[in-house]
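Please, is this right?
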Amino acid sequence: MNLTLKKIEMPLEWELLEAEFVDRPNRFLTRVKYNGELVESHLPDPGRLKELLIPGVTLLIKKEGNPNRKTKFSTQAVYLGEQLISLNSWLPNQFVEFLLKNKSIDFLEDLDYIRREVPFGKHRFDFLVMRNKTPFYVEVKSVTLVEDGVAKFPDAITERGKRHVEHLAEMTKEGIDCMVLFVVQRSDAKIFQPQWERDSKFAEALLNAYNDGLKIKVIQADMQKTKMFYHGELPYNLKP
């Protein structure tokens, strides 16, 4: 299956500022040089990101307006050469919401958008859409790791992601329509695969869920400084 290019873009509604990455004191914090000063910036992506967050690389940060925040900035993206890679784990959800509302995803275009953050049992899933008044649940996973053209998820062990997949598999076996939608936020990926070597339990849960009928899809996005582009669907291989 070849990548299907799309002429679809979502404008980003905030100004992004260039800064230099210094270090990462913890999973959710980066220290950066901005306008000659060392400042702390919240990192929304808790993944390992070791291949991206290298001292001296250029980041894009956003100035936050909430006076009660501990940090006045948030780290949104990083340059890998000339390619910009999103570090905002919430951006794919905003992007998918935009695509769903505009019926821009070919394999979901017959579904009507209902709402985000939908509880079901003890879990909460990203989107509820409807097909002929029948509920359809969509869980979005953000992918930023690419090795030799292979997009991989997760880049750190995710017990929460494993539980989500297992619960969706149980829902599927009960006749409820469900999907895990992986959003690859890089333009250099050619195929997607779960990262068996990093989190074999998640990968096995995903493969088992697929064999039980859970729908799996992968789409590709490309972030620019002012826009997010949709590049269509990517093929995948779930086996190790």
The chain has a mean pLDDT of 93. The longest strand covers residues 17-26.
